[in-house]
Every structure is written in structure tokens, then in C-alpha cells.
Amino acid sequence: MPLSTASEKIHGFSENLHSTFASRYVQTSLPRFSMPANEISKEAAYQIISDELMLDGNPRLNLASFVTTWMEPECDKLICESLNKNYIDMDEYPVTTELQDRCVNMIARLFNAPLRDGESAFGVGTVGSSEAIMLAGLAFKRKWQNKCKSEGRPFDKPNIVTGANVQVCWEKFARYFEVELKDVKLRDGYYIMDPEKAVDLVDENTICVCAILGSTYNGEFEDVQKLNELLEEKNKKTGWDTPIHVDAASGGFLAPFLYPELEWDFRLSCVRSINVSGHKYGLVYPGIGWVIWKSKQDLPEELIFHVNYLGSDQPTFTLNFSKGAGQIIAQYYQFIRLGFEGYKSIMENCRENARILRDEILKTGRFDILSKDMGVPLVAFSLKDKSQHDEYEIADHLRRYGWIVPAYTMAPDAQHVSLLRVVVREDFSRTLAERLVRDVRKVLLYLDARPPKSIEHPHTAVASVNEQPKPSRNSDRDHLRALSVFDKTLNSVRAFKVWKKNALHKTNGVC
Ligand SMILES: *Cc1c(COP(=O)(O)O)cnc(C)c1O
């Protein structure tokens, strides 16, 4: 451990004789509520924080998230070298700005935006899809307001139509920017937005319909083509011009490579904007998303700010001003490093690994698969028989092997369906898939030998409206359970967690 002489002078005792672990820093607890009065050595600060962070989960085993957990060391180096660059200083860092523009151009063409050779696309890099969605939503709201004003109609009751399976950022958009969210409810066995029902909900105050390319719940692609057809028809009949936004947070970097024939993007007439998370299948670490508009007309000019604080005129349309430049640079790195072929093979690998994982999970004979072959490479699965144990217990026990696999319930009106979801990312190899299934089998064996859950979970309560709870199969097991105070405590903690997960259903597992 390097020695510190600075701290010796400041604190007046001979700290340079001790390693960090022999120093007083590991003996006192660090202040958590107010800033400490004195400094500590950089070695101690580093050690203490890095040790505490060891208790976080291991990102590579975090199968809950779509977000990138691995990049090449060369790209890590580029990111580290640009940590001190502020993206917004466009005049000072013109090359970074240029890289952003190149990324926007490339993504727009990947999404088949109608652009001539050499023509610049309309879009911007954001912190993630959430910010991208706020910006796209604001553009729709402003366009709709302008239209209402020009027609002398009231413009105080905008609404947006989505499936109930939308990611929480759409609810945020609706609440923060005062737009009513009209959601098409899910139903048993159908876990995405039904395009017919969505178009039925559209009225003259609908600022847009949002379709999801890759539902966070089961990875399924919504039928944007069908939605477009129905909306075109309705627009023709009513004279409205209701547009579509595609939330392609995860699917935007999958569909162009895996399903180039699938029409979901700017090839469709009503699709006016698309968002994608650079930090999901764009293969960049967290902190980057993109929003692309079909044409200049789709982005109202009054939302663009022109500032010149830092030099020349800079047009900006973002919610935040400053942010790190590293993620934009990293996105450009991935584009030129991998190219179309590189992305295609990575996405094909992910799809293949997801297939293998699905088949192995099916082979246990204990699960139904809720994800689809065409969609985000993930496996969503639910227990066939939940009378003894449920998905939450499986998730809890998998954690003991280091795996982070979320258990959650579907969106309304399919909340009675609970499931587990494993997202297959670039760094999830076949070996890991095989190991995971082995561990799932071990957990099943372990749970089979355990007494069933004692407290009825809220989602089973919902299910029991249609279906009486099954009587317990094994009275010996019940007896055993009754004797086990420990189990009761454990189960009530678990039941509380389940309740919390149900009550806050948008905030777990779906990121
Ligand atoms: C992840 C996700 C979001 C939110 O994106 P962030 O990049 O995490 O802000 C929105 N919609 C869908 C469908 C997603 O999968």
C-alpha cells in the first residue's frame, strides 16, 4: 500500500507507518449525513469506497438489465481519456460534436429515414431513452398545440396512447409534462399493445401513439406496421394527423440487423420519431440514448435553443446542459469498430444464446416461456405450478449463486402473471447460460424439498378471483412449516417484498 506523508503532517501522527487496513480509517465508521471535518489519505479513501462497493452485485451476472456491462479495453481507454470533456462545450470540443452528428446520421439511416446522400439527419444524443422520450414527447405536444391554435381549438387536454406495458419513463413524461396517458390494457396471453384497441383510443387530442419495439416485460415487438395501417385509415377518415413514436430502446439496435425486412421504422408513414438506448444493444456503457426525427418538420423550431455562451451559435435540444462526452465517443467507437457486420454477428449470437437458454429452461419441464422468438434476446418464463413455490423464491435463491434474475408481475390487466426474466447481452456466453440453467435446476430441487410458501402473495390473491387457491398437497410439509418460526419470518419478509414489487410494479425488473 503506498504511504502517505501528507496525512502525517495534517493529523500529527505517524500514519505513514501503517497500511490502510492498520489505520484508524477502518476502525471508525464514515460519516453518512454530513461532510467529514478532515481529509483522509487518497489510498484510504479509495480502499474504503472500493471495499464497500464490493457488496454491490456483479454487473456481469446482472441478468436483469439490458444495459451494457462490457466493452473492449481500447474503448475503456478512450472513455477514460475523455472523462474531463463536457459534451456541451461544442465550440471547445468540435470533434466530439462532430462524432455525435455522425452517430445521429448513421442511426437515422439504420432506421431508414428519408435522407439524400450526404444529407444530415435530425436527432440528438441524450442520457438514455428516457430523456430521448421526453424530448420526442415534447415535440409532439408542441406540434399538436400549434395545430390546435391554428384551428382555434382548445389545447389544454393533450393525451398519449400506449400499451399498459410501457416503460416507466412514459408515465414520467405524462406526469411531468401534463399529458394524459391512455393505456391499452393487456390480457391473458397477450402482453403487448393491441393496435386495434390503441387506434380506438385515439381522439383529436392525441399527440401520438407510442409503439414499443421490445416490450420490457417479455421482449416482444409490437406490431408497428399494423398500427400504422389502422392509424393511416383513421387519419384519412377524420382528417387528423396522429403520428406514431416508436420506443425502440432495446429493439432499435436489434431489428435492423436481425430482421431487416420487418417494417417498424421511418419506412412507415405515421412514424415521426424513434428513440433508442445506445447503452442497451447499442453496446455502450450506461449514459447514452438517441432520438431521431423523420424530418425537420417533425421537430418544432421553437424547442431548439440557440446559445452562444461558449463561443459560436449552438443549437441545443436536451433537458440537461452539461454531461460527459465519453459515451458519445464510445458509441462512435462501436459503430466504426464493429460496422454493420460486427453488430449483426453480435446480435445473432445473442439471439442464439437466448434460444439455447430457452430450450434448456423448457427442458426442466417446470416453466412456460412468455418471450417470443422474434423480439429482444431474452427469456421470460413463469412457473407452471405455483402452488408450492413461486418465481420470487426462485429469484431469491438464484441470488445465492450470484445470479441477479428479476421476478415481477405483468402490467395491468395481466398482473396475476408473475415471471422471471433473463436478458441475454453480448457478454452472456453459452457457458454462462448452461451454468445458469444448472443453478436453476439446483434451486428447483432445493425448493421442492422445502415447505411451501406460507403467506399468500398478493398476486396469488388476484389470481384467486378466477381460480380458487389450490389446497396444499402435503400436510406433513405444512406441519413442518408450522414448526418453523424462522421460515415464517423469512416468508413474511418475502411477502412484504412481493407486496412492494406489486405495489410499485413499474419500478422493478424492467430497466
Ligand atoms: C430501457 C427502456 C426505456 C428507458 O430507457 P433508458 O435508456 O434506461 O432511459 C424506455 N423504454 C423501453 C422500452 C426500454 O426498454
Automatic annotation (TrEMBL):
GO terms for molecular function: glutamate decarboxylase activity; pyridoxal phosphate binding. Keywords: Decarboxylase, Lyase, Pyridoxal phosphate. It is an enzyme of class 4 (lyase). The modification N6-(pyridoxal phosphate)lysine is found at residue 280. Its EC number is 4.1.1.15. It catalyses: L-glutamate + H(+) = 4-aminobutanoate + CO2. Pfam families: Pyridoxal_deC. Coiled coil: none annotated. Residues 463-472 have a biased composition (Polar residues). GO terms for biological process: L-glutamate catabolic process. Gene3D superfamilies: 3.90.1150.160, 4.10.280.50, Type I PLP-dependent aspartate aminotransferase-like (Major domain) (3.40.640.10). Residues 457-477 are annotated as: Disordered. Its cofactor is pyridoxal 5'-phosphate. One of its GO terms (cellular component) is cytosol. Belongs to the group II decarboxylase family. This is Glutamate decarboxylase. The lineage of its organism: Eukaryota, Viridiplantae, Streptophyta, Embryophyta, Tracheophyta.
